[in-house]
Each structure stands twice: as structure tokens, then as C-alpha cells.
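G., the chain you wanted modeled:
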Amino acid sequence: MIRNIKRVLILYLVIILNISIYSQNDSTFLDAKLSIIADSTSRNVWIILKKNVNIYPSEFFSEFRNTLGLCVDDSMEIISESKDEKGIVHTRFQQYYKGTKIEDCILIIHSKDRRVDIINGIYAKNINININSAISEKVALLTALEHVNSKKYLWEDTLYERKLKKETQNPNATYYPKGEVLICLINDSLPILSDNLALAYKFVISSAIPFNKKEIYIDANNGNFIKERNLIFNCVVGAAITSYNGYQSINMDKWMNSNGIFCKKYRLFDDCRGKGIHTCCWFKPDYPESHYNCNLKCDEEEITDGNGYFAFSDTKSGASAHWAAEKAFDYFYNKHGLYSFDNTGHLIKIYVNNDSGGQEENAFWDGNDLTLNFGSGNAPQSGPFVSLDIVGHELTHGITQCFAGLNYSGESGALNESFSDIFGTMIEFYGQNGSGDFEMGEDVAQPGPLRRSLQNPSFYPTKLTPGSPDTYHCTFWYYGSEDNGGVHINSGVQNFWFYLLCVGGSGVNDISNYYCVEAIGKEKAAAIVYNNLRYYMTPTSDYFASRQYSIQAAINIFGENSNEVVQVTNAWYAVGVGNIYQGIVMINNHIVSGTEKIANFYEVNLQNLFVPKNTSLTVTSSTKIVIKPILNAINGSFFNAKIEFPCK
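Predicted structure as C-alpha cells:
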């Protein structure tokens, strides 16, 4: 305990340490031309403008076209713009070549006070492609359908077509594929170079049997199949049944059938959040068993009850998913200011008991229909997939699709899954008033592949590996092609990074590096993750991109040289992505809240620090701690400054 200390206290000690900072480092600054405008800390897809470069975002691409390596046939068009809580404007640009979109080529300009500060993303240079199609859309579609080879398609199913017209309020709406002509990557894992680009027809093929939705790319010049991307974002984890959350209040509406007659009175429609949360039962007349767990006496899909108390077994799955979606909506709105998954209040449409195509033990976000879908489970191994963490996980896929567009394969797909695991976890804590854990699927599924652990990714086996990795490209990292390149496996790396950031930890990782991360807490960690996902990630972002962007997010929120930036950096080092933080920690005009710990291998500089009663601050440095006017520690507080190896 320290009473009202108001004097300069300088603690200085130099310790010679053999700190291993070996890591699997990110790519270096590659383009010499860009050094004209970018400072020396810039990297391949992370351009920080020099302080003497003053330019408006709207003028950037025209002014520096040659510097960026763009030609007269290239153009950049704004696709979205938003301002964060710190006043930073984030403007996303889509690249076009001779008026044709180059898919996945997204650049984001981050500007302060109308001045361009940072640019990140991917774009193509030196393009030489014939943009005139040699084959017709009809011929390309035949090739796409031959590749998919489904027994039945959604446009051949009258129920699906009728639902689509009803939901879109468009009598002409159809699942029948319409080709989009664009320039795409031939191989998503190779660089964006001219010989890896092709003019293509892109189709969304929606299959009924087997159930699936895919983007199919057909070469517009020779008619060959190029690639496919899955639009069904599988979770393959477990969830909690309603009884685990007990009695809960939910919103619903009083409902009439199509003849204007009251029927069962209440249904699971909440029109008080955004444009609504509508929870329905997956129903197909061809398969009577599809509605075995729903009360469907009034309509083909609405889940109803006579007195507004959904307490019976046939409505339990729907009521659980409905309540969880309400909590997920509230979390993103109250904590991050996000109004539904697209920030415009978009309708959240939910289907429970969607077991089509063997989806009983699964949940998925349908990226084409923009719906949440949950399987009924497979008792006794698992219950309905409608818990807080699973519903939150799937809704986050919608956010990722709307803002980051992360491809669902390889590292970008693993990050896609990880962001959903992270916010599924945060929504569980939120919906249970602070009670929760760092596991996915623990409430419904027995230990095994249906669970995932953020705290210990290697603990649960997957269907393809004995566990998930907690270190980049190390133990249990999956290099194969199944599971879209291991998206549900390799997500463990960022999951463990988030866990360390929340609760702290130290140890030696799989590449023999000692790490030390002091906790910054769940709320701060989630704010950084959200800022990264919302404002920086692009379709092809990988782990090193997520590291760079999350560090920038921490700078945006907490300031340069802040403790939060240090711990974000060191947590990435802990999972084998990048180096430890190697700068000074600067804490100025700070009021301690609760229990805080600051640890840095290098200097810590504290200025104008206030430690109120019943709070605690521990500062650790390997080399030097400087405390100067003023440190004010009130009676009943705790302050400790130590010169020692962090976390020892």
C-alpha cells in the first residue's frame, strides 16, 4: 500500500537477457516505388503514409496511380464507408479492370481528419486480360451444373421458390442461377498476378439434394471449370438446449393466418429488434419428419403457441434459438454499435430443425439466403444446436460476410471460423450475465469433434486431426484440402491468441519461444477483434494480416505504445505469428480500474498515474521502469513495480 506518493521515482536496471524473438515473420516491404510515399514500417499490403504526404481519400488513387503500379485501365470504386468510435474513416474500394470487377481485390483507406493515413488490402498490377467473353452464359451454366451434378436443385422445388418470393416480396425472385462476369483468381492460394487471373462467369448453384450452395466459376473464354467456393458456413460444434438457460423473457408477436383469423395467437417473431428476428421451423411437405419437433398447426413454418408461453417440447428448439439470437443482436448493438449483421437492421431469419443433407449435428449460416440454420441434434450424443455460443457463432458469419468477406478456405477461412468462435464465446458471457467459458459446444455434445476449446485448442480431437493447433504451422496444423483446407482446425491459433489476451498466460510454444502475455480482459480484447474484423480484414487476409490489423485496431482504441498494443503483439508472438513487442510502453494520465498488470520486456514509462482505493496495479519490466509526476496511490490501493523477467 502506498499513500499519496507525489514524487519522481526512477527505477533503473539493465539486465542482459537472451530473449528469443525468432518467429515465422510476415512479408517485408516489396515495392520500391511505394517508398516514395510510404514510411519504412510499411509492408507488402500495409502502407503507412509518410507524415509529409497530405492527400484526401477521394484523390489518392488518381494522384498516386503510377506509384501504386496501376494503369489507365484500372479503377477503384467505393463500395462502403464507415466511421469508428475514434473518428477514423474506413473506406473500402473495389478494383476494376476495363470496367470489369476483379474479385477479392479490395483496398481499404483509413483516414483521419480527411487525410489518408493507412492503406491495406490486395490489388492487382500489370493486368493483361481479354475481357470479351468467348462463350455464352447459357453454355457456361451447363458446365457449372455438370460440375455440381446434384439430383435436384432449389429452383426445381416449388416450396423453396415460394418461400423465396415470399421472403423477398418479389414475385420474380428465383434460385435459378444468373451468371456474373468478373475477373477471378484461378488459384486462391497463389499471388494475384496476371497469369493467375481469368475472365469468368460466376454462378450461385443452390442444390436441394444433396443440400448445398456453392459459387461456381467457369472460364468465360474456354468454358473450363475454374474453382468453387462453399456458401454454407458449417460450425460443426455443439450447443445448449433450453433447459440450460432456464426461464427467459422473449419478444413475440400476435399473429393471424392468411384469412385474417387468429390462429394460436403468438409466434416467434420479434419485430422490436431491427427489421425483425423471425424464428421458424424447417419444413418440407415431401419429408413429414422435417417438422416432427415443431408446432405447425397454423402455418407451414411458423412456430406458434396459444398463450405466449413456449414451454412445450415441440417449441423448445425454436424458443431457444430465438432467445439466443435476441441476446446476440443485443450484444453487437450494445457493445459495438452494430445494428444487425449488416448494420442496417437486416431481418435475422432463423430455421431450427434443419436436418437437410445430414445436418442434424450441425449449424450453418447460409451466405446466399442470409439465414441462420440449426440442426436438431442426435440424442444422446448431442442436443439441438441452438445455444448462445452457436447462435452467436453463426450470426458472426453474417457480419464477416458483410464487412470482411473472408474467403471460406485456407487461412482466411480459419480466421472466418475463429472470429465466429470468439464472438460466440463473448455472446455466451453476455447472455449469461458474465458467466461462461472459453469452449464451443460444451453444453450439448459429449467430448469429441463437436467441441472446440479456445483455452486449449489441442484438447478436443477433430475429425481429421488429434486436436487443433495453438501455434502457427505447428502441432496439429492441417495442410490438407478437406474441411475447406482445415477451417475448423487451424482456427485454433487465433482462438488461443484471444484467450491469452483475455486472461493472460506464459509458457513455451511449439517453436520453443518463451512468451508472456498479461491479461487485458474480455471487453478490451473483443473491442480490438471487432475493430479488426469490421474495418481491416479483406477476403484474402491471412494470419499475418490479422496480426498487423489487430495491432492497428489496438492503436486506434487505446493509443500507440499502450499496454494493450504490447499485449496484442505479445499474444501473437505466443502463437508463433510475428515478434514480441520491442518498444517502450507509455502510460499517461491513466486511472487504474480493478486489477491491472503491465508487463514489457523493455522500458515502461508511467506519467500522471492515479491508483484509486480498492484497485491494484503491478508493473513489470526486464530493463527499466520510469515513474514521474505524478503517481497518486490512495490508501487502500496496491501498487508494485518490479524489475524482473515478465511472468516469472
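The domain at 32-121 is CATH 3.10.450 (Nuclear Transport Factor 2; Chain: A,).

Shout if anything looks off.
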